[in-house]
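Chapter review: from sequence to fold.
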Amino acid sequence: MNIRNVLARFGEIGLTVGTAAVLATGLAASAQAATGTIQYFDVHQNEFRITDPPDNVCLALQARAEEIENKTNKRMTIYLGTTCATRVTTIGPGEGRSHIGGPQSVRIIG
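The token string follows.
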């Protein structure tokens, strides 16, 4: 095997390893999510849940929340409106709020 073939082979191996590293890093970054559930109730006490919500994504609620509880392992910001534009408050894991103006969206802080 001549030196040119050896160098070409090392280049192929390096490219393969580099591509695998980029894919693994990219997939890990995009797959981040809180573990647990956001549980909320509307004014009629209908229950809604969001399980394992993704980090840093605005999540519109199915109904205005009269009561909301963060049963995930990360902090959560609560907003009025469906686009996470008007912040109401931020709560930690295991915390909840009620009667705060009927928020319509949340975001897990990752």
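Two observations follow directly from the output. The beta strands are 36-41, 47-51, 59-60, 67-72, 75-80, 86-91, 96-98, 105-109. The chain has two domains: 1-31, 36-109.
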